[in-house]
Amino acid sequence: MSRPVALVTGASRGIGRAIALALSPTHHVLVGGRDTDAVSDVVRALESAQPFIADLTNEAAVTAAVTGLDHLDVLVHSAGAVTYGPLIDSTTAEWRELMELNVIAPATLTRLLLPALRAAHGLIIFLNSGAGLTAHRGFAVYAASKFALTALADALRADERGRLRVTSIHPGRVATDMQARLTSLEGRPYIPDAHLDPDDVARAVRLAVDLPPDASLDALRINPV
């Protein structure tokens, strides 16, 4: 492969899709997702790409999907989920589901791909959230998962310094289908223009990717104006 290789999870829609498109001019993109048809649509839109189909919460499936991948330049964790409501209304199942997808899944995928990333002196980007820095009313479960993701990135950066670069990107609210559902749960009108565009987040990812290898963008917070 003459191009550097990038794996983007959650790349079939929203922020992940925008990131895959932003990396396409320079990278061979592994388009991560569970829906084969949706992933295939994105693959066809990119200059050099192939599907990466796996349920990220299924370790056996993820292990099978990464088999043979021995060199990886960029890993972007974009897949995730959000929930809204006070702690008293949350359930243990809800806590487990969000921690599994937002924290354990990226930790597992990263661990399995560390040899490939080390071989490339690669870059790992965690698409986090403003909720990974400041918790607000109604976001106990989500914020807890994103704070944990911040800690994962910080610890990994310390563990791998000199071998890998690790970036946390903390966007504010982004105009996606997930945001539309969230504002509905909050009982507020959804106004796309009041939020970041997914392409804004993709530009932040490009900023981290395009830095020279002797520089690291450790963390970045971006918000809509």
Main sheet record: 7 strands, parallel
Low-pLDDT segments:
none
Query: Spatial order of the strands in the main sheet?
Result: 3-2-1-4-5-6-7
CATH topology annotation: Rossmann fold
CATH architecture: 3-Layer(aba) Sandwich
Shape: globular
Task: Work out the number of β strands.
Answer: 7
Describe the structure.
The structure is a single chain. The protein is α/β, with parallel strands linked by helices. The chain has a single domain, classed as 3-Layer(aba) Sandwich (Rossmann fold). It is built from seven helices and seven strands; from the N terminus they run E-H-E-H-E-H-E-H-E-H-E-H-H-E. The chain has helices at 14-23, 36-45, 59-66, 92-120, 140-160, 177-185, 198-210; strands at 5-8, 28-33, 49-53, 74-77, 123-127, 165-171, 219-222. Strands 3-2-1-4-5-6-7 form a seven-stranded parallel beta sheet, sandwiched between helices. Helix 4 (92-120) links the parallel strand 4 (74-77) and strand 5. Helix 3 runs parallel beside helix 4 (92-120) and helix 4 runs parallel beside helix 5 (140-160). The longest helix is centred in the middle third of the chain and has 29 residues, at 92-120. The termini are far apart. The mean pLDDT is 94.
